[in-house]
């Protein structure tokens, strides 16, 4: 896999910004959760395909419903993207659920639980 060029990095940033705006303000589908965010975007160098990693703050059911809503609105999103961005090709968008934020929160909680247990043990030893 080759590194992203400056042009590709800039296109990824612009597509990410526009996708966020379209999802936040342009789609009226009730399945799409209000706390949906676009985490990152990977556009291929030929501008034919795009992977959009999204994160939904909610339970698993809300995540599945949001993913279904976004897949059904894919044509509208692509049309809006073509209208707002001046690209040679408008990429086909594939939405992927990103679990990294939830994973990070869970790991932080586990680390705090372990550290909290160590602090309690140290206090008990000092009291004896």
Low-confidence stretches: none
Give, in order, the helices and strands: HEEHHEH
Domains, number:
2
Mean pLDDT comes to: 85
Please provide the count of β strands.
3
**CATH level 4 superfamily of the largest domain:** K homology (KH) domain
Report helical residue fraction. 55-70%
Q: What is the terminal separation in angstroms? A: 59 Å
Determine the strand fraction and express it as a percent band: 15-25%
Short précis:
The protein has 128 residues and is of the alpha+beta class.
Describe the structure.
With 128 residues, the chain is an alpha+beta fold. The protein folds into 2 domains: 6-97, K homology (KH) domain (GMP Synthetase, Chain A, domain 3, 2-Layer Sandwich); 99-128. It has helices spanning 6-25, 60-72, 74-84, 100-127, and strands spanning 36-43, 49-56, 92-97. A 3-stranded mixed beta sheet has the order 1-2-3. Strand 1 and strand 2 form a beta hairpin. The model has no long low-confidence stretch (mean pLDDT 85).
């Amino acid at each position: 896999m080759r590194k992203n060029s400056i042009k590709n990095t800039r296109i990824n940033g612009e597509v990410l910004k526009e996708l966020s705006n379209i999802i936040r303000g342009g789609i009226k589908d009730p399945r799409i959760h209000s706390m949906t965010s676009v985490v990152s975007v990977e556009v291929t160098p030929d501008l034919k395909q795009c992977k959009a990693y999204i994160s939904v703050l909610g339970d698993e059911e809300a995540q599945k419903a949001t993913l279904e809503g976004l897949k059904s609105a894919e044509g509208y999103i692509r049309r809006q993207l073509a209208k707002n961005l001046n690209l040679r090709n408008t990429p086909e968008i594939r939405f992927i659920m990103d679990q990294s934020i939830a994973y990070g929160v869970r790991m932080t909680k586990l680390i705090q639980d372990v550290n909290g247990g160590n602090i309690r043990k140290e206090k008990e030893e000092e009291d004896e």
